[in-house]
TrEMBL record:
Transmembrane segments: none annotated. Pfam families: Aldolase_II (PF00596). One of its GO terms (biological process) is pentose catabolic process. It is an enzyme of class 4 (lyase). Its EC number is 4.1.2.17. It comes from Desulforamulus reducens (strain ATCC BAA-1160 / DSM 100696 / MI-1) (Desulfotomaculum reducens). Keywords: Lyase, Metal-binding. Residues 10-187 form the Class II aldolase/adducin N-terminal domain. It comes from the Bacteria. This is L-fuculose 1-phosphate aldolase. GO terms for molecular function: L-fuculose-phosphate aldolase activity; metal ion binding.
Amino acid sequence: MVKATEKVRETVARLGRKMLESGLVAGTWGNISCRLEAENVVVITPSGMDYANLQPSDMVVLDLDGRVIEGYRKPSSEAPLHLAIYRARKDVLGIVHTHSEVATAFGVLREPIEPVVEDAAMLVGGPVEVARYALPGTEELAQNVVKALGERYAVLMANHGLVGVGRRVEEAFTVCQVVEKCARIYAWAKSLGKPVVIPDQDVSELSRIYRSSYGQPQK
């Protein structure tokens, strides 16, 4: 399993640095994980460490019950949230939690981010709903997020931040980038007038096309 997780550790560490450089988090907040389907374990970022200096060896490997399998660091305090999503969604193999500013503002308003641009419709599969507030790191928050996420690929945590999920951890990261962009566009459009939201049936079709045929075949 050490060999299987090494590449994933490197990917998660790299995305942590990219998350900080992209302005999706500040300081040591936010977290990233990747589930190795074959081994049914999760590689997750450590708690409270500077992303700029994060190394693959700092990653923690957990089973789906939260027991540490590998690593000497304390895992992210939001591990219960990640594990709850993985248990509920077998299609999810990567999770990224950010504190991006405009998306989080909608979470403060307790207002969903509507699918007003096509790339967000493709990636999310509907509006980004807001999970009910609960204290960070709690099982209550984890269950609230799972419920609000449903079968979509992004969810807001009230007064907290954004969670993006994907079939790969890189896709989850892209979800967070696109949702933040959509949030900015939606906020600007609301300041100018009444935004026109893409109809539900078109959102469903855009999401279906993206998941079935967009991009190059995976090797």
